[in-house]
Design a protein that fits this description.
The protein contains 16 helices and 15 strands. The chain is an alpha/beta fold. It has a seven-stranded parallel sheet with strand order 3-2-1-6-7-8-9, sandwiched between helices. A six-stranded parallel sheet has the order 12-11-10-13-14-15, with helices on both faces.
Length: 401
């Protein structure tokens, strides 16, 4: 198949969506399919791979790292789009609209992965420009119902979309990570390079934004550190709240026990996963939480707030610990694991087994099955009498399925 992946965020940006798309791209090619990525330009960035097609773009002031693409291109790009067998969009915005146009114009099956809870992320838009929650739900419903199917990274997202009124098929598919990346021995000594003290390392990886609930994590770690002064928290990532969070560690009196690394390379991140003692995760609005899967693939026991994405990934007491959003409860869970090496080893082995069974290769096989279903439904509709009304009825808000 010729597959087009349409996204408003891509390399050199670093986030979970980009990681998933790059894994998807590579595994689909390994399976023998042709893959093209359509994404915005980033200033100063050039692609070594000739299968990435960039649209001119401008920076979005309200959301760091996101670009708004201008859907213009040469004849070569639009001929390429016309020859696709599958359109797979990963955002509903500028490049996502190109995906919608391509599917409608050329009769190509269109799948969409709903990566983010836009009802919550609208908080990045200041009043009076912030749209009401109901409007975001209506836009999400309209876009998804114009697709041939929607891929939800977790069952919680599937439930959320159903509550919006999405009627097209929804597939719950949390995408896995690359088992091979975690197979080699660590080549980077994180303690030495980052100047970390001896002792137990707690690790958090993610965007430093309000949605990750990191202030709660810092307060919880303050309790852990009071009981076990040798513990150290490493926070990997970048985001709009970094300066605020660094200042907050000083207010809590734990500045010397917390290291903010900023973004680090993929290889070093994997090495850091394998050198940490626990992975700690405080976000309450993850559509999946890919970093949890990465930590588990590295055999790193997880302590997380039991909400949304983590509920689909972590089996309490078997592959990690899930707790409520309570600082004392979170700290107690961390302390219990730090004090019990036998339990950490048991959780580590079970977590790695879980992640391996749901690797990127396994996820890609499931994704290809979804693609084939979408193609089969479209062929079936075309053979029906009056099958030609499909796209026109969609555009009038009628869903014939």
């Amino acid at each position: 198949m010729k597959i087009g992946l349409f996204t408003d965020t891509y390399a050199p940006d670093v986030n979970g969506v980009v990681t998933v798309i790059q894994l998807m791209e590579r595994e689909l090619r390994r399976a023998g399919h042709d893959v093209c990525v359509f994404a915005p330009t980033y200033p100063g960035h050039t692609d070594a791979d000739g299968t990435v097609y960039r649209f001119p773009s401008v920076r979005l002031v309200l959301y760091r790292g996101m670009r708004f693409a201008l859907p213009v291109g040469g004849r070569k790009v639009f001929r390429l789009i016309a020859g696709l067998d599958i359109v797979h969009s990963h955002d509903p915005f500028s490049v996502g609209q190109v995906a919608f146009w391509a599917a409608w114009r050329h009769g190509i099956p269109h799948l969409h992965t709903y990566h983010a809870l836009y009802t919550e992320l609208r908080r990045y838009i200041p009043p009076p420009f912030r749209p009401p929650r109901q409007a975001v739900e209506q836009i999400s419903r309209a876009f998804c119902n114009l697709c041939d199917g929607v891929i939800a990274p977790s069952r919680a997202v599937e439930t959320e979309l159903r509550s919006y009124g999405v009627r097209v098929p929804i597939y719950s598919l949390p995408f896995g990570v690359d088992e091979e990346e975690f197979a080699h021995s660590p080549g980077w000594n994180a303690r030495r390079e980052l100047g970390l003290p001896p002792g137990e390392l707690l690790l958090f990886v993610g965007r430093l934004g309000w949605e990750k609930n990191i202030e709660f994590l810092l307060r919880s770690f303050q309790r852990v550190h009071a009981q076990r002064p040798e513990t150290h928290l490493v926070i990997v990532g970048e985001g709009p709240q970094r300066c605020r969070l660094e200042s907050y560690t000083g207010d809590l009196g734990i500045m010397d026990a917390v290291t903010f690394t900023g973004p680090i390379s993929r290889g070093r991140l994997i090495d850091l996963y394998r050198q940490a003692t626990l992975f700690v995760f405080s976000s309450k609005m993850e559509t999946q939480g890919l970093v949890l899967v990465e930590a588990m693939m590295a055999g790193l026991p997880v302590v997380a707030v039991g909400a949304m994405g983590p509920l689909d990934i972590v089996t309490p007491g078997e592959t990690g610990l899930l707790v409520g959003e309570n600082e004392e409860e979170f700290a107690s869970a961390c302390h219990a694991l730090l004090a019990d090496e036998t339990q950490r080893r048991r959780l580590s082995e079970a977590a790695r087994h879980w992640a391996t069974a749901r690797s990127a290769r396994v996820s890609t096989a499931q994704l290809l099955h979804i693609y084939e279903e979408a193609k089969a439904r479209q062929i079936s509709r075309r053979t029906r009498p009056h099958g030609r009304v499909l796209r026109g009825d969609w555009l009038r808000g009628c869903d014939p399925r």
